[in-house]
Structure formats: C-alpha cells, structure tokens
Input
Amino acid sequence: MKINIERLKSSLINLGKIGYEEGKGITRSAFTPEYEEAKAFVKKLMEEAGLDVYQDPVGNLFGRLDGKDKNKSILLGSHIDSVPNGGMFDGNLGVLAGIECIRTLKENNYAPKHSIEVVAFIGEEGTEVGGTFGSRVFSGEFKAEKGDLDYLKTVGITEEDLLKAKRNPETLKCYLELHIEQGNILNTENFSIGVVQGIVGIAQYNAKVRGKANHAGTTPMNLRDDALVKASRVILKINEIVNKFGSPMVGTVGYIKAYPGAVNVIPGVVEFTIELRDMDRKRVLDAMEMIMESCNNLDLEVESLGFEWEVNLDEGMQKLIEESCMDLNYSYKYMVSGAGHDANPLSKITPSGMIFIPSKDGISHSPDEWSDWADVEKGANVLLNTVLKVDGGFDI
Ligand SMILES: [Zn+2]
Output
C-alpha cells in the first residue's frame, strides 16, 4: 500500500499559501486569524477524508477514523502553526501526511483494528506560554502559572479548558510524527529517512565575566583587565570542550553584551548566554563543570536558566520504523533530534516515534525551507507502513 504523493503535495502547497507573503515565507502563529484559516483548511481535508472531526477546548484539531476497537487510538500528527517567516513543511507535513495515510487506508478498504486519529496540535512553535502548548496540555505536561492563565484568558482559554483538553493516556495506542529534520545530517549523508531515537536535552545558562572598565586611550595594554577579551577566551573554551565531547552534543553562545558598551571604554562586564544540548544529561553537566574549571582564571560566573531534559523515544516504535524502511527499501539512519517537537510531551504518556526526512541544505524556520517531493513521499510511506505494523499487532 502506498500513499498518493500528488494529493499530499497539493495539500501541502495549498496549506502553505495561508499566512504566506512573497519573499517572507509563512507567518502563522497560534491564535491568529491566519492560524484559524489554516485550521479551517485542515478541518475541511479531514472531513473530505471522511473523518469525524472535533476540536478540544484549547484548539487542538482532531480527525478520527473509528477502528474495530474504539478504545485505543493510533495518533498521527504534528502542528500547523509556524515561526515568523517560516517554511511550508515544518509541522504541516506530519499533519497532512497523517490525513493522506488514512485516505490511502480507506481507498484500499482497510478496516483498522484500532481507531486512527490525526491531530494538529496548537502552538508548537511557542506563544507567551512557551512551545509545544497544545501537546503539553493534551499530555498533562502543561503546568499553568498565574501569568500563563492571564495570557490564555486573552485567547479565550480558561483553567477548566486546560483540564478538559487533557487526554486519558489509556485511550492511546501510540503516537507517530513525521517531520522534516531541520538539520543537515540526512541531506549531507544521503539518507532518505531518519529513525529518531530521542530529542536532545537543553541546558541554558546566563554567564558573566568581570573585568575593569577604564579609559581606552590612557590605559596601556599591559594594565588592562578587559572583560570582553576574557569572555572571548571563555567562548573559545566552550567551543573546544563541546567539540571534545563530540556528537550529538552542541554548544552555543548566542547572545552577548559588553558594558558599558562604548567605543572608547574598555569593557568592565560582559554578559552572555551558554546553551548546551545532548542526549545525556550527565554529559551536559560534566561539560559545564569542565568549562568552569578551565576558565577559573577568567572571572566567569554562571547561573542556570533551567534544563529541559532529553527525551528517549520508544524503542519498539524505532524498530517498526526501521522495519518499514527495510520493507520499502529506503536508506535510513538512526539519529537524534536537536529540536523539540510535539513528540516530546507525547512520549511521556504513550509509546512515541518520530520519522525524519531530509531538509535541503539543513535549512528550516526560513522561507528557504525545502524538502524534495521524493523524500516527502518516502516519509509518508514509512508513516503508513508503520501504522499498518502497529495496527497489525506488532509489539511496541
Ligand atoms: Zn515543527
């Protein structure tokens, strides 16, 4: 059984027109008119596919095909919101491929044992209440603070809605998400499919290096305590240490500010951020310790901004995705995701699997985001094949 790529392609192109501006890509944040328009488009596709369509109280949209056993659903999906000036594949692919899989099953008169549901989660890319909003609420992972509730009220969501939108995990068989890689690994190494083992954890810190601000003209080089020169050494050290730890660890200094920040003053204080990502929290903490040790003569202070720990996806699901690739004769690679996804909260409540396809030149969150149609087709076929395996009673 194979999906219809022409139909999937046309859905992706049409959804990609909503919130699109020439040269600027797609801007379609949750709770905006563009988002509502996209949701209406997906709802119509779900209806055309003959699914029962419903929306939960926070705005997650579902289309459901009943199986013989209505008690447990195989859930397929992703998100249809975008970052500002984003691309047409991020998120949309997982939702539309889910609908395409069900259409294919129906055309082939396949009567599923389990119900199959497609979901478009709301607010994956982040709103005032953080990323993966809809999937966190659905999974019971969203803990609302006072400020969150105030914001949610402005978009018509109450505390009671949050509780009502939480799904009983017993009603789920598994979750499967097809997504673009948003990195350059499959593209450079020439693999069609990524079997995702997990989503890296993220540790973020605020860092400060102190020196002595002074006159840039009257202070000779040997009498300076230049905070920015010291911060530069720290940044190089971070790069060196993260490289030493090796893949999949990545480390980034993405923000820096020098004080007082004048052309003729030696910087007295420099503030910057440090972000480390890896699949193993111990390695992250070890790397941070090594950074602190190797910089102990550079007046470095760091303060943790918090951790989001790594997520290991279900091994049974990984196996089934791998078997699907083998059945279809597609090249594949086991890999981790450097970005967060809806599969992250979902993995807390049900066996979850993710399938990646290559992103051209590794570009995403950009109008230049692109995946070849041949890869889109392969990804959707792997999704379909994996659904058939799960539904057919393969162990997960
Ligand atoms: Zn995404």
About this structure: The two ends are 22 Å apart (CA to CA). The CA atoms of residues 236 and 295 lie 10 Å apart. Residues 227-245 form the longest helix (19 residues). Residues 201-308 form a domain with the Alpha-Beta Plaits fold (CATH 3.30.70.360).
